[in-house]
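Hey team,

Filing this mostly as a record. A colleague (T.K.) asked me to run one chain through the structure pipeline before their review meeting, and I want the input and output archived in the tracker in case anyone asks later how it was produced. No errors, nothing strange. Just documentation.

Input sequence:
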Amino acid sequence: NQVFPKQGAEAFLAYAAEQNIKMAICTSNGREMVDAVLSSLKLAGYFDCIITGCEVEAGKPSPDIYLEAARRIGVSPEECAVFEDVPAGILAGKRAGMEVFAVEDEYSLGMEEEKRALSDFYIRDYSELLP
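Output structure:
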């Protein structure tokens, strides 16, 4: 109940869903936390699958979690875009062969330069991606 979506995330999720874009959550957090947050925010319905780090052999920065998400939703890694707020996740997405958007985050503000260098794109707000 104390986690809030990043700026513009809800509008972006709604837009992506309208476009029939498949979406997954790939997180290092535990399943109980993910389920609690999604339930509290009423966002679970947007996602075709949710994968936690416990479900793959190696955690981020290994690409395992992103490759498993692509497999589960039935798309090739090259068709995927990753949205990440920490360098290990950005590396995982890149290693999976996916396009990666680094997302500004108050907890990783000191890592902005590294995140920009590792990613394909950098956004401050998900509304930047809306038409």
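Quick notes for T.K.: The longest helix spans residues 31-41. The beta strands are 24-27, 49-52, 81-84, 99-103, 121-123.
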